[in-house]
Amino acid sequence: MPNSLIQQFRDRVPVLHQRLMLGCALGLSVLLAWPQPKPTQSSLGFMPLMLGMGLQHGPQQLQQFPVAELTAWLQSQLHIAPAEDPFIKVYNIRAGDSLSRIFARYGLNYQTVQQVMAADESLLALDVLRPGNRLTLQLDENGQLQSMELYVHAGKKVLYKREAADEFSYQELLDEGVWQNTILVGEVFGSFYASAQRAGLNDADIYNINQLFKERINFARDLQAGAQFQVLRSENFVGEESTGLSRIEGIRILNRRQTLTAFMHDDGQYYDANGDSLERAFSRLPLASQVRVSSHFNPRRLHPITQRVSPHNGTDFPLPIGTPIIAPADGVVTRIENHPFAGKYIEIQHFGNYKTRYLHLSRFLVQRGQRVTRGQRIALSGNTGRSTGPHLHYELHVNNRPVNPMTAHIPLARPVPAESKAAFAARVKQLTAQMEQQTLLAKQQSAEQELAD
C-alpha cells in the first residue's frame, strides 16, 4: 500500500515540485539538527518544540545559520540555475556565425548592425568572428543595444558603446600578459612538416620556419633523414590563460654538414647566429611608383564623412580605379572580404610580426590562403565601401597593432646594428646552450623509454 501511494505521488506531482519538496525537507532537517541550548523542560512534543525553537532561539540561530552555503548547496542538488539578468545577453561564437544573425536572435534590427559595423570600420575586429570569441550584449528596458563587448582572447577585448541614437564608439582593452618560452626539439623522419608537428609545432610555426629558410634550403629535397631541429617558441599568457599567440624566437636546424640558424632580435627581425639578416627587404609602398598621400595615419583623425573623431589606422593614396596594388613583401593572404564600410579588402600575413591591409578595392587578384611574393599584383584599387573618392587605404600592423606605414621601422635586409651586436651574440650563445641541453635531455628520455619497452 505505501509503495502504491508513493508511485501515485510520483506520477501526479511534477519532478521539479518533487525536488523542491525534498529540498524543503532537507532544509528543515538541518534546522532541527543545528546545535542549540538544551531545553529546561522535558519533551514537549514535535509541534510545541518547533514553536519554542522559533520563538526562543530563532534570532540566535539565524545569525549562526550558513544561509548562503545551504542555498548554494540546495541549488546544486536541485539543478536550479541562478537568475539571469534580462538585460545582459552572452553569446559564444560558433562556426558560420555572423553579426547580423546574432543580433536578429536578440531582436536587434539591421540598422543597429550597421551602426556597430561603422564603429568597427577602422578595426575590422567583427568582420571575422571565430569559435572561441564571445559577445556580451547590454540592452536597455526597450531591448535596444547600449554596449557590446567582443572577447577575442584573454589579452584582447573590444568594447563598443552607444554614443548617440545612431552612433557607437569602440575601445580596445588590451593586456600584453607575459611570454613563456618552450624549447621543442626533434629529428626529421618523413616530411619536415610531419616531424615538426610531432615535436609540438603548429602550422603557423612551421610556415614561419619555411619562410625564414626558403632561400637557403629546399625542405622537401635537401633535408636529410635524421636531421635535428631545435626551436625556441614563446607563448603569450594572461594569468593562467593562453591567448593563443605564439612566436618563434630561435631555431637551429642541423642537417649533416649544414647548420641553419635564425634568432629574433629586439627589433623584431630575424638574423642568423653571425648577425646577418634573414629578412627580405620590405617595400615602403604597395605601389609601383611614388604617389602623394591624401590622408595620413592619425589615431585622432576627424572622419571626413561623420565629422566625429575616428582613428585612421592607415595611409590613403588617391588612385584612379583599376590601379594595380602590389605586395610589399612575401606572405600569405589571410582575409578577402567585402565590408559595408571598408569595401572590398585584403589582409596579408608576412614573415615575423608584420601584417598589411588594403581597403576600398575594386577587384581581387589573389585568393584566401594563397602565398604571394614581393612585387606580385594582388588587387586593383577602387572606390568600394564608405569612401569620399577612388583611393587606396593601406595599413601596416606590427605585433597586431597598426603603425604608420610611412615612418615605421620595416625590414631592410641589414645586419644587426653595431651598437647591439655584442648583446645579440650573448643571447645567441645562451639560447644555443639551452637548445643543446634540451636535445640531450630528449635523447636520454628516448633511450630510457626504449629500455623500458
Automatic annotation (TrEMBL):
GO biological process: proteolysis
Cofactor field: Zn(2+)
GO cellular component, one term: cell envelope
Database matches in Pfam families: Csd3_N2, LysM_OapA, Peptidase_M23
Stretches assigned to coiled coil: none
Keywords: Hydrolase, Metal-binding, Metalloprotease, Protease, Zinc
Listed GO MF terms: metal ion binding; metalloendopeptidase activity; peptidoglycan binding
Domain of life: Bacteria
Subcellular location: Cell envelope
SUPFAM superfamilies cross-referenced by the UniProt entry: Duplicated hybrid motif (SSF51261)
Location of the LysM domain: 89-137
Protein name as catalogued: Peptidase M23B
Species, as recorded: Alishewanella jeotgali KCTC 22429
Lineage of producing organism: Bacteria, Pseudomonadati, Pseudomonadota, Gammaproteobacteria, Alteromonadales
